[in-house]
Amino acid sequence: MRFPILLGLACIASSLAVGCAADPNATKKGDTAPLVMPLSISGSWNVVGIETLGGAGLIKPAVPEGKGPPRTPTLSFDPPVGAAGGRMLIFTGVNKGTGHYSFSPGERDVGAIAIDRIATTRMAGPEDAMAFEADLLEALPLARTVKRTTEGVVIDCGEARVILTR
C-alpha cells in the first residue's frame, strides 16, 4: 500500500519542479527558461592575464623562448570543504605554490572569494616571467569577487582583475 502513495508523491514533486522552472513569459506550451548553473570555480584554470585598472592594460604571462613548450600559469581550486574553504594550487609560470580560498557562489554569475595563506617556491626565472609572477601574487590576496564570463571567470582584486579560462 505504501508504494502507490510514494509513487504519487514522486510524480507530484517532479511536476512541481518542472513547473517552477518554466518561464512565466513563455509564449508556447512547453517553453521553459534556461536553467542557470550555479557558479563554480573548482578545477584547474589557465591564467590568461592580469588586467590593471591603473592604465597598464592587460599584462600577459611571459612565454619563454627556446627552452621547451611554454608553461602557462594556472590556478587550481580543490573543491571546498564546507565553510572552511579549500586548497588552491598555483603555478606562476616559474614557481609552484599553494594557498587557501573561501568561496560563496552568490547570485547567478557573481560570487564572493577570498584568497590567503599563499606560499610558493623561490626559483629564479626570466625577468618578464618573474615580473608577471610578482603581479599575480600581489593581486590574489586582494581578491573580492569572481564573475563568470563567456570565456571563463574573472577574479576582481581591487585595482586588478585576474582573467582565467579552462
Give an overview in words:
The protein is of the alpha+beta class and 166 residues long. The chain folds into two domains: 1-35; 43-165, Lipocalin (Beta Barrel), CATH 2.40.128.270. 20% of the residues lie in helices and 35% in strands. An eight-stranded antiparallel barrel has the order 1-3-4-5-6-7-8-9. Strand 3 (74-77) and strand 4 (86-91) form a beta hairpin. The longest helix is centred in the first third of the chain and has 20 residues, at 2-21. The protein is globular and about 40 Å long. The termini are far apart. Residues 13-27 have low confidence and may be disordered.
Brief synopsis:
This protein is α+β, with helices and mostly antiparallel strands and 166 residues long. The chain is built from two helices and nine strands.
**Helix content range of the residues, please?**
10-25%
- Helices and strands, in N-to-C order? HEEEEEEHEEE
* Count of individual beta strands: 9
Mean pLDDT: 81
What is the CATH architecture annotation of the largest domain? Beta Barrel
According to CATH, the fold-level topology of the largest domain is Lipocalin
Widest sheet, order of strands: 1-3-4-5-6-7-8-9
Output the radius of gyration: 22 Å
Classification by helices and strands: alpha+beta
Multimeric status of the protein: single chain
Summed up, the helix count is 2
CATH class of the largest domain: Mainly Beta
What summary fits the major beta sheet?
A: 8 strands, antiparallel, barrel
Please give the domain count. 2
Q: State the distance separating the first and last CA atoms.
A: 51 Å
Question: Any idea what the shape is?
Answer: globular
Strand content: 25-35%
Contiguous low-pLDDT stretches (5 residues minimum) are 13-27
